[in-house]
Design brief:
Length: 483
C-alpha cells in the first residue's frame, strides 16, 4: 500500500481496524447469533438508524455488531477499501481522504453506514456518473438468515445473492465486510449555482449535463439541485480542483441550501469548498430539516453547540418526538390537527421530472425538494443481466432517472385513511413510471408491493435459499406499514 497526496482538509493519518480486529468482531457477531432463540426474528442490536419507518418490536436480543464499525484496510494501488458493514460514511471518508481517494458515491448524511446504503438506499451528486453505492462493490461477506457467512461476488456460487442484495433491506442477510472501489479526488470543489424560473428548462439542462459531463465548457464532477418553487429552482454543479484560495464554511452559522439562492438567471453564483466540507455540505442542517428544531433561527443557532449541528443529533430529537408524540401535542395545543410524516425519496425518469414536480408542488404542501440525477454505471460488471442487473432495484440500464427527495409533514385531513398523502404519492410515482425507496413509510398492498419490488421470482428464490426458516422478516413485512 502506498500513501497518496493528502487533501488540505484531511484529518491526518487514518485509523484502520485491521483484519484481526475485524475477525474478533465477526466472532462476537456469530456468538450473538447463536444466542438468539430459533423462534425469534433476527435483528441488529443497534441504537441508531437512518430509517424513517417503524422498526418491528422484538424482545429477543439482537446481533452484536459492535466490532463491525470500522475500515479494515485501504489499498491505494488498487483503489479499493475493505470496510466493515456497520462503518459509517463519515469514518470511511476520514480513512480514504488522506490518500486522495473517496468512495464512488458518498450519501449525504454522516451516519449512514456502508452496509445500509448497499442493502437500501444510497445516492449523491456523483450518481449521474457513478450510479448507486452497490455498483462500486466488488464483493460482500454476508451473514445469511441461516447463520452462514458467504462471500458473494458478481460471478460464482453466490452471484445470485450479490445481484439480489441491493434493496433487500436486511431480509436476506447482513453485510459484515464489503470490498469497494474508490476514486481519486482533489482537495477542493468549485461550485456553480444555476438558477431557473422554469422546471422544464431545468430538466432539459440537467439531462444535457448528464450526457455531456460538462456545462459551458467546464467539466461537471458533481450534480444535484434544489426546487424552492415552480419558478425558482437551481442546479448545483461541482468541479474538482487543485487550485488554492478562500473556501466557504457551512458547518456553523451559514446554511448551505440558503447559500445557493440568487436572483440572476444568466449569471451563475459561484462558491468553493474543501472536498470534505463538500461531501458533508447537507449534513449540518440535514438538508433543510434543521429548521423544524429552530436550528436555523439566528438567535438560537448562535448558542447551538457546533458539534451538535449534525444529522445524528437531529435523529435523537426525532426519536424523542416519536416516543412522546411531542409534535402532535404541540399542534393539539394550537388547535391544529396532527401531522402525517411525508419523508420519501422517489426516482422518476428524467423526461417526467418537471411534470412530477409540478404535480407535487400543487398537491403536497412541502418545499424545498432535492433533485439528484442518476444512471446505472456503464459498463455493468461481468455477470450482470442486460435487462435488469439488480433485480430488486428496478432501474433500466442506459436510462437517466432523477431522485426527488422531500422530507417534512402535512396536516392530517379528517376522514382520510392513514397515510393518505403517502398513498397518493405512491400511486402517482407508479403513474410516472417511477420507483420509491423503502427507508420510510410505505402503504402498498402485498400484491402491488411484490409486483414492484420482488423482481418477479427473484426475491422468493433468494429468500428460500438464504433464509429458508424465515429467521429474518420478509421484505413486505419489514417495509410496509400494517395497522
Amino acid at each position: 500500500m502506498r500513501a497518496g497526496r493528502r487533501p488540505s482538509d484531511s484529518r491526518g493519518t487514518p485509523t484502520l481496524r485491521g483484519p484481526e480486529a475485524h475477525r474478533a468482531g465477526v466472532e462476537r457477531l456469530l456468538t450473538s447469533y447463536r444466542a438468539i432463540p430459533r423462534d425469534a426474528n433476527i435483528r441488529l442490536a443497534k441504537k441508531t438508524s437512518n430509517l424513517f419507518r417503524a422498526r418491528a418490536k422484538n424482545s429477543a436480543p439482537g446481533l452484536d455488531v459492535s466490532g463491525l464499525d470500522g475500515v479494515i484496510s485501504v489499498d491505494t494501488d488498487a483503489r479499493t477499501a475493505d470496510v466493515s458493514g456497520m462503518c459509517t460514511y463519515e469514518d470511511l471518508v476520514d480513512a480514504t481522504l488522506p490518500y486522495g481517494l473517496a468512495p464512488m458515491v458518498v450519501p449525504q448524511l454522516k451516519t449512514i453506514t456502508l452496509g445500509g446504503a448497499v442493502t437500501g438506499l444510497g445516492i449523491e451528486s456523483t450518481s449521474f456518473r457513478n450510479g448507486l453505492p452497490h455498483e462500486s462493490v466488488l464483493e460482500i461477506d454476508v451473514l445469511t438468515g441461516s447463520g452462514e457467512i458467504v462471500t458473494a461476488r458478481p460471478e460464482g456460487e453466490y452471484a445470485d445473492l450479490f445481484w439480489g442484495f441491493p434493496n433487500s433491506y436486511g431480509t436476506l442477510g447482513y453485510s459484515i465486510r464489503l470490498r469497494i472501489q474508490l476514486e481519486p479526488v482533489k482537495p477542493y470543489v468549485a461550485l456553480r449555482h444555476l438558477r431557473f424560473d422554469s422546471l422544464e428548462e431545468l430538466q432539459t439542462t440537467m439531462d444535457r449535463i448528464v450526457n455531456d459531463r460538462e456545462y459551458d465548457g467546464e467539466t461537471v464532477d458533481y450534480l444535484d439541485g434544489v426546487v424552492f418553487t415552480a419558478h425558482e429552482s437551481y442546479l448545483i454543479l461541482g468541479r474538482q480542483t487543485d487550485e488554492g484560495g478562500p473556501v466557504s464554511d457551512y458547518t456553523g452559522n451559514d446554511i448551505f441550501y440558503r447559500s445557493i439562492q440568487h436572483s440572476s438567471i444568466n449569471h451563475p453564483k459561484t462558491d468553493r469548498l474543501t472536498i470534505r466540507d463538500y461531501l458533508w455540505r447537507w449534513d449540518t442542517d440535514w438538508f433543510w430539516c434543521s429548521r423544524a428544531f429552530g436550528a436555523q433561527n439566528p438567535k438560537i443557532r448562535r448558542f447551538w453547540p457546533k458539534s451538535l449541528l449534525r444529522s445524528s443529533f437531529y435523529w435523537k430529537i426525532i426519536a424523542l418526538d416519536h416516543r412522546w408524540d411531542i409534535g402532535d401535542r404541540i399542534e393539539h395545543r394550537k388547535g391544529n390537527p396532527p401531522r402525517e410524516r411525508v419523508v420519501q425519496d422517489v426516482e422518476v425518469p428524467i423526461e417526467r421530472t418537471a411534470d412530477f414536480v409540478h404535480w407535487f408542488l400543487e398537491e403536497v404542501p412541502i418545499e424545498p425538494l432535492w433533485l439528484c440525477p442518476l444512471r446505472l454505471r456503464e459498463p455493468a460488471p461481468a455477470g450482470a443481466s442486460a435487462q435488469r442487473p439488480w433485480p430488486l432495484y428496478p432501474l433500466e440500464p442506459k436510462r437517466t432517472y432523477v431522485n426527488i427527495g422531500f422530507w417534512s409533514s402535512v396536516p392530517v385531513v379528517a376522514g382520510e385513511p392513514e397515510g393518505a398523502a403517502n398513498r397518493l404519492i405512491e400511486e402517482k410515482v407508479s403513474d410516472f413510471d417511477g420507483h420509491k425507496s423503502l427507508y420510510s413509510d410505505s402503504f402498498y398492498s402485498r400484491e402491488d408491493f411484490e409486483r414492484l419490488y420482488y423482481g418477479g421470482e427473484h426475491y422468493a428464490a433468494l429468500k428460500q435459499k438464504y433464509d429458508s426458516e424465515s429467521r429474518l422478516l420478509d421484505l413486505f413485512s419489514k417495509a410496509v406499514q400494517r395497522r
